[in-house]
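[09:14] KT: can someone run the structure on this one? pasting the chain below
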Amino acid sequence: MANTKEIKSRIKSVRDTQKIASAMYLISSTKMQKAKAALDGTRPYFTALKREIGRIFNFFGDIESKYFYAENYNGPTDKPDACLVITADKGLAGAYNQNAIKEAEKLLKINADTKLFVVGEYGRQYFMRHNVPIEQAFLYTAQNPTMQRAREICRTLLDLYESGGADEIYIIYTDLSRDIDKSVQSVRLLPLERKDFTVSGVSVKDKYEFWPDANKILETIVPAFLTGFIYSALVASFCSEQNARMTAMRAANDNAEDIVSKLSVQYNRLRQADITKEITEVSAGAKAQKIKRQAREKQYEYRKNN
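[09:31] RB: done, structure tokens below
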């Protein structure tokens, strides 16, 4: 059984861990607020792009685009040829990384030849350890999503799509949600569906001019829209990671407090036992001295009388 010194040392260790968990909680909270502010600042622009794409389809219902399914298509095959998986660079975030990886493994079961594109060191290391081939790993950190990085990812995926290397491209990311287990999103990035760009409140009788032509405009707007979508996914995943880490650190802090409480009770019991033992020993010693003194006094009286 541990003594009071060992328990006291254990309590100090748990307190130190609790301080680290609290600091990580505050850091994650600050990072999440900053990332959400950056996303809110750019979201209106990409919302407007989506509306303009819908406006073009409103006026030119029969327009064809390489980025969209044909108007008379039979529906997506749900058989991905390529997939972008967004994970974190490290753990300590609950089930955040594992949920994204499980979703990717579901797609790999549908098509084992799916080309994987990975963001985040955790995902890269996981697929390498399990001998899952990676088409390309974007080696910059997932901790700092920027528009420039979203453009680079988008350009890589578009080059693959336009060259015929993939008919369907998916993206797996984690959206910010209270329930982390239900927040993983698997979305088909390309081709797009026209119904997702329906615009209400716009009359086809309104006169608009498109220069040089609607097809050229779509070829310019769609890559910008996809860049915005990927950037939103990067930021949403980063915010979800920080939110998951905050939840994990809060739980760690609560567990540490529970451990300290139990150790404190154990420490106090042992300390009280030691105090009781010392009091008993002092009392026994005093009683022994008293008996010894009384014996000497009796012996002295006996010798005196004889």
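[09:33] KT: thanks! The chain has two domains: 4-11+256-305, 30-253.
[09:34] RB: yep, looked fine to me
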